[in-house]
Design goal:
By secondary structure, the protein is an alpha/beta fold. It folds into 3 domains: 62 residues, no CATH class; 187 residues, 2-enoyl-CoA Hydratase, Chain A, domain 1; 55 residues, no CATH class. Helix 1 crosses helix 3, helix 5 packs parallel to helix 6 and helix 6 packs parallel to helix 7. The longest helix is centred in the N-terminal third of the chain and has 23 residues. The protein starts with a helix and ends with a helix.
Length: 356
């Protein structure tokens, strides 16, 4: 271990120990001697190595400045790298009439990409609303966040309900975008509290491949007040473990495999996990029940179920359920955060329909 490394490590650990000691005892005693503490830990603490002691010192130092400084880009937090710093990550139509727009990195021409994606999705579909997914989104361009926010607040795209999805990995300019939409009352925010890093940051590359992000200035939109510091609280909280949410985010139609952390994949928000059954599913279930009743020779509790005549190639009535291939079941949204958003949009669209 070089003298330079020991000096930096000593400074970091000394600061951390000093602040921890002040919190615990609230005394004016000087901090313990770093070399003394280091040698005792290195010699007597099972599993203590130079690497993990250094990591502990760095994490302790950064923890003293929550929301103002952080490490990004490593194995534990590679969101920006995984996204390839693409502005728009994904766009799709969910459940026939909900436009889904996923943001990866808030920068550059994000607003133009969002506008183009929405137009492409609604060329043949009338969208009842928009889901703007900012989970795992990052960014460092406050101007791009402002332009994207203006896109929704001015109703340049979307006439229905806007629902914004966030989580603890929503940070930087992505968090500023969510905060701007909240302040403008442009839509509902669903998910879990954000990272609390809605500010302009500067990143400094580190030798190990990670980047040290330090807050420079608070974000201001349209000469208004600065975006408040601290985590942005969702309007509707949906609790999901970090591992499960990542899996749902990657494929919202497949449930994550059970783990020791979440053996039953149960949260305190049960509703999103309930399968939503379509009208076609109800008809199919009713037909299956009728077949069981026929096999048991039981009296039918309801009238006969008969669809309009279907004529086969021989000119005969082909109305038998057994002679037709069963309709493939539609995929069911398993992502509880996205499912809650879709339910809200579709429910509001029904309420807003004119009644005769």
């Amino acid at each position: 271990m070089t003298r330079h490394f020991l000096g930096l490590f000593a400074l970091a650990l000394t600061i951390w120990l000093a602040t921890a000691s002040a919190r615990a005892a609230d005394t004016t005693n000087p901090a313990p001697d770093f070399k003394e503490v280091y040698d005792l830990l290195r010699t007597n603490l099972a599993g203590a190595t130079d690497d993990n002691l250094n990591r502990a010192a760095v994490e302790g130092l950064l923890s003293r400045f929550p929301g103002k400084v952080s490490l990004v880009g490593g194995a534990a937090d590679g969101t920006a790298i995984a996204q390839g710093r693409m502005a728009l990550g994904k766009s799709a139509v969910v459940e026939n009439n909900v436009a889904y727009l996923r943001v990866g990195w808030v920068a550059g021409n994000l607003a133009d990409e969002l506008r183009a994606a929405y137009r492409a999705l609604t060329t043949t579909n009338n969208a009842a609303g928009i889901v703007l997914d900012l989970r795992f989104a990052d960014g460092d361009d406050a101007a791009a966040a402002q332009a994207a926010a203006n896109l929704f607040t001015s109703k340049k795209i979307g006439a229905g309900l806007l629902v914004v999805l966030v989580n603890s990995k929503t940070r930087g300019a992505a968090e500023s975008l969510a905060a701007a939409l909240r302040r403008a009352d442009a839509g509902l925010i669903i998910g879990s509290p954000t990272a609390g890093e809605a500010a302009t940051f500067k990143e400094f590359p580190l030798r190990n491949g990670e980047r040290l992000r330090i807050v420079m200035t608070p974000v201001k939109f349209d000469h208004g007040p600065a975006v408040p510091s601290g985590s942005l609280q969702p309007d509707i909280a949906v609790t999901v473990s970090a591992d499960d949410e990542r899996a749902f985010w990657e494929n919202p139609y497949v449930s994550p495999a059970p783990t020791n952390k979440s053996p039953d994949l149960v949260t305190n928000n049960l509703l999103p996990f309930v399968d939503r059954i379509s009208e076609a599913d109800l008809v199919r279930h009713r037909q299956e029940n009728m077949k069981r009743i026929d096999l048991l020779n039981l009296p039918k509790p309801w009238g006969p179920v008969r669809e309009p005549n279907r004529i086969n190639k021989d000119g005969k009535d082909d109305n038998s359920a057994l002679s037709r291939t069963a309709e493939a079941p539609k995929p069911v949204l398993r992502d509880p955060v996205l499912a809650r958003a879709v339910d809200l949009i579709k429910g509001l669209a029904i309420v807003r329909q004119p009644r005769h």
